[in-house]
């Protein structure tokens, strides 16, 4: 069985995936990496300083994905009231942290909730 990627590698894979989506940019408000589309955040990647545990925060409106995310070890609704809007904070340093592929799927879901229709059509090959 293959060894799972470490938290920093998983975080970087999600970051690279998210930045590959149409019209995305990375910014660093509050010293924290966020990926935006149309000036709106769709993935929070936190601060990559080695002092804080790696994690990602994504907006999940699909009931099954949202429920699944909240069953992960250490996962919780995002702070500052974002949890009420479907945002979930997922730590990556937990032993049963989700694989990068699943987090990339969730990053795409979060993107689709926020991106303009024109960019979603571009993503879908239209």
From TrEMBL:
This chain belongs to which protein, by name?
Answer: MmcQ/YjbR family DNA-binding protein
A Pfam family of this chain: YjbR
**What keywords tag this UniProt record?**
DNA-binding
Q: Which GO terms describe its molecular function?
A: DNA binding
Signal: is it a keyword of this entry?
no
Q: Does the keyword DNA-binding apply?
A: yes
